[in-house]
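Structure first, sequence second, as always.
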């Protein structure tokens, strides 16, 4: 065999393009120096990934940093204006404040004309006004948008994503509730919606109408959930929803369509102000949210969520029965001061099979009342309950009461 034979270069273009798609675009471009055969191959690959295009060595000085950015801008201008460039499957772009809005918008418009299917933009700077064509793109199936939270996202009057299945938004500031509703609702086949670290300015209602939605995720930008949804009403119509994660501030009210197919729900309600007047509102809203999840099978509630529920005045009594719930997980440190709230909740989950405390018990507030542990032995609770698991087990009296006073079919302890 001739050791100098270049057999890989003899492969057809379609196969070489497929190989190059698995490389970062920067590496794929470097293959152009291999031979005349490879010189222009990179210009025809359907995936362009510019998330890590900076060179650490060339940007060690201010002049090198400036030249690196200018070379990249000029290169992207050239490659996106090639007449024989194919339609794009994926386009990833991360920009900082050194890219002006008009240039970035020209790139976005170009990839939309190439019928891009997956678009991932991380833009840090004053990119608050995108080309209107972005929000009416018929080819998009996945859109991920991360911005500088300092700047408000200005939405156009016309929004339509007929093929969009996944929408992930991070560090976005919204301030128009009507246009925001259009953004979340004009996606007829949307299956996953992720809203992370977003702010809602001057918005009284957040409305999501998504009949095909299966996964919905909220994540607050702050640990206490302040300045997020605490001044909004949240309305969600998602009859196909399977999974809900809500790590957010307590909204003023919740209007949830019956989630008849809901399998998993993970709720962590955040609040800073727990004055007497605020407690009433928090308790009411927390109960409204939980009441909309009565069909769930696997439920995770944080210690703070139980604290929020404990503020409700007789609201727990009016909650529906959770007939489908078989697994309950108490996430984060469970405050002993809310043990009666947990006990009341356990009485409306008659088919519960497993109970998990992921971070043990908070010993800071303990009045010595183990009545809840005794009541836990009620026949209605033991009918299906098979295991109690306590992680971060420390062996203090509250934990021992749960173990010793409940005659369960099985118990699992992880230390």
């Amino acid at each position: 065999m001739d050791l100098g034979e270049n057999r890989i270069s003899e492969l057809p273009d379609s196969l070489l393009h497929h190989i190059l798609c698995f490389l970062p675009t920067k590496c794929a471009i470097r293959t152009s120096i291999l031979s005349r055969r490879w010189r222009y191959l990179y210009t025809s690959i359907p995936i362009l990934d510019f998330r890590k295009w900076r060179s650490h060595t060339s940007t060690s000085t201010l002049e090198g940093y400036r030249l690196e950015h200018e070379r990249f801008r000029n290169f992207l201008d050239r490659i996106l204006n090639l007449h024989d460039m194919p339609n794009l499957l994926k386009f990833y772009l991360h920009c900082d404040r050194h890219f002006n809005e008009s240039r970035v918008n020209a790139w976005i418009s170009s990839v939309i004309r190439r019928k891009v299917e997956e678009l991932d933009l991380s833009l840090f700077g004053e990119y608050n006004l995108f080309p209107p064509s972005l929000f009416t793109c018929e080819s998009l199936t996945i859109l991920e948008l991360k911005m500088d939270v300092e700047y408000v996202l200005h939405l156009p009057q016309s929004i339509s994503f007929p093929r969009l299945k996944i929408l992930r938004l991070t560090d976005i500031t919204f301030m128009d509730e009507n246009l925001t509703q259009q953004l979340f609702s004009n996606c007829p086949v949307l299956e996953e919606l992720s809203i992370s670290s977003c702010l809602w300015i001057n918005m009284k209602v957040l409305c999501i109408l998504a009949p095909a939605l299966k996964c919905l995720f909220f994540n607050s930008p702050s640990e206490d959930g302040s300045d997020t949804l605490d001044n909004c009403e949240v309305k969600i119509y998602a009859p196909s929803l399977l999974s809900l994660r809500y790590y957010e501030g307590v909204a003023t009210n919740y209007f949830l369509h019956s989630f008849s197919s809901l399998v998993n729900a993970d709720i962590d309600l955040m609040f800073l102000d727990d004055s007497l007047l605020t407690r009433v509102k928090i308790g009411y809203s927390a109960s409204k949210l939980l009441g909309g999840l009565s069909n769930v099978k696997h439920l995770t509630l944080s210690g703070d969520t139980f604290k929020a529920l404990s503020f409700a005045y007789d609201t727990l009594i009016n909650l529906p029965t959770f007939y489908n719930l078989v697994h309950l997980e108490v996430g984060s440190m469970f405050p002993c001061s809310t043990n009666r709230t947990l006990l009341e909740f356990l009485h409306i989950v008659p088919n519960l099979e497993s109970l998990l405390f992921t971070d043990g018990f908070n010993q800071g507030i303990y009045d010595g009342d183990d009545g809840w542990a005794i009541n836990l032995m009620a026949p209605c609770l033991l009918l299906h309950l098979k295991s109690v698991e306590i992680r971060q087990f420390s062996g203090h009296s509250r934990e021992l009461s749960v173990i010793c006073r409940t005659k369960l079919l099985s118990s699992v302890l992880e230390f």
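Margin note: The first strand starts at residue 47 and ends at 50.
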